[in-house]
C-alpha cells in the first residue's frame, strides 16, 4: 500500500511593532499565510523567513523598527519588511542591504507575495483549505476569510487535528473588521473558510463581542448575518460559506439566504452517504435525515446550490455502500460534486485499517461517482438556459470582447464558470446580469444585460 507522507509546511516568524492598526495588519497577513499553509515559528531559529511589521510614527519608533530588522537579520538572515517604515525603503536598504523585500502599510498582497517568494508554500491536497490553484494571491475582488484554525473532530482519514490542533476560533469582531477592510479595498465576494465552519465559536462558548454598537456572538449565524450587511446595501457583497457540516443549527442560515444576506450556496463535505462508511470514517454531523433537510432547505431557497466532496474506496467500503452512495446522489441532486479516491496518509487511523480497497476497484467507483455527478450537473445547468443570473466577472478578454465570471452557484477555482460574449467594457469585480444561452457539464454561456452593480 502506498502511504502519502505530508510535506513540512514552511514556517514564518513574525515581529509586530507599532499601534493596534499595525497589529490588525499583522493578523490579517498571518491569516492569509496560514490559509496558504504556512506555520508560525515562535523563534528566529525555526523560521524559514522572518516578517518584520514596522512602525514609523515617531523617530523613536523608527529606530526601534530598524533595531528589530537588524536583530532579525543577525539571528535568521531571511527577512521581509512591511508596515509604515516601508515608505522609507531607502533608509532600510542603506542600513540592511540583505533584506529580501520591503513593502508598505496595508500592502497585503505584496507582502504575502514576498513571503511566498522567500519561502514557497508546499501545497498538499490533504491539508489545504484553499485549492492548489488558489495559492496564487486572490484577485482584489474576492478574498478568503479564515474564521478559525484546527478542528475538534477526529475523522479516521484526516491528520489535520494532529497537525493544527483543536478548534481555535477568531473573535467575531476581528473577523468582521478584517472583512470590512477587504470590502473597502474592493472585495466583492468573501469566501468563509475554516476546517469546520458550523463549529465556529464552540471553543469560546460563542462569546459575544461588541460590533457597531451591538453584540455579535461568535456563531456562524450571527457572523454570516453581519458579513452580509457589509457593503453599501445589505447583500451587495457576496458571502459564500465553505466547509459547513450539516449540524441542526445550519438550518438557521437558510433564512439569511432567503433574505439575500448570504449566497444561496453551501459547501458541505459529506465525504460519503452510507451510514456504515460514515460511522467508520468517524464523520461529524452524520445525520441519516440529511436528505429531508436538503429538501426543506430547497423549499425555502429554491436556487440553493450545494457542492460537496466524496471519498470512494475507504477501507471496508463494499459494493452495497457504493450503490447506496450512488442512489443517495441521485436523490440529493447536488449541484457540484468532487470525488476522490481514498489515499492512505501517514499518521491517519484509516491508513492501518483492515480491508483496504484495491486501486482498480477504487478507480471503478470513482468513475461511477464522477459519471453520475457529471450527468446531474449537466441537467441542472441545462435547466438554467434562458434564465437570467448575476455574474461576478473574474477576467476579461480584450481580444475577443468576452469575459469569464461566476454565478452565485460557483465558488472560484472549484466550481464552474459563466462565459460571456459581447462583454466589452466590463472589468474584473463587476457584477452583471446575464442571460444564459447555453450550457455543458460544468459551465454556462451567455450574454450580459445591463450592469447591475459596478
Ligand atoms: S472535520 Fe474531519 S476531515 Fe475535517 S478537519 Fe476535522 S478531522 Fe479533518
Bound molecules: iron/sulfur cluster
Low-confidence stretches: 132-136
Strand order of the largest sheet: 3-2-4-5-6
Total number of beta strands: 22
Mean pLDDT across residues:
89
Output the radius of gyration.
23 Å
Largest sheet: 5 strands, parallel
Helical content band: 25-40%
Question: Rough shape?
Answer: globular
> What percent strand?
15-25%
**What class do helices, strands and sheet pairing give?**
alpha/beta
Calculate the terminal CA-CA distance, rounded to whole Å: 53 Å
Total helical segments: 12
List keywords for this structure.
globular; five-stranded parallel beta sheet; single chain; alpha/beta; 454 residues; 31% helix; binds iron/sulfur cluster; five-stranded mixed barrel; 22 strands; 12 helices
Give me the secondary-structure topology.
Elements: E1 3-4, E2 11-16, H1 20-35, E3 39-41, E4 49-54, H2 59-75, E5 79-83, H3 89-95, E6 101-102, H4 108-118, E7 142-146, E8 148-149, H5 160-164, E9 168-169, H6 172-184, E10 189-193, E11 209-211, E12 214-216, H7 220-228, E13 238-241, H8 254-259, E14 265-267, H9 275-281, H10 290-300, E15 305-312, H11 319-332, E16 336-341, E17 344-345, H12 359-382, E18 388-397, E19 402-406, E20 418-420, E21 431-439, E22 444-453
Parallel strand pairs: 1-17, 2-3, 2-4, 4-5, 5-6, 7-10, 10-13, 14-15, 15-16, 20-22
Antiparallel strand pairs: 8-9, 11-12, 18-19, 18-21, 19-20, 21-22
Helix pairs in contact: 1-4, 11-12
Iron/sulfur cluster binds at residues 151, 153-155, 158, 160-161, 195-196, 284.
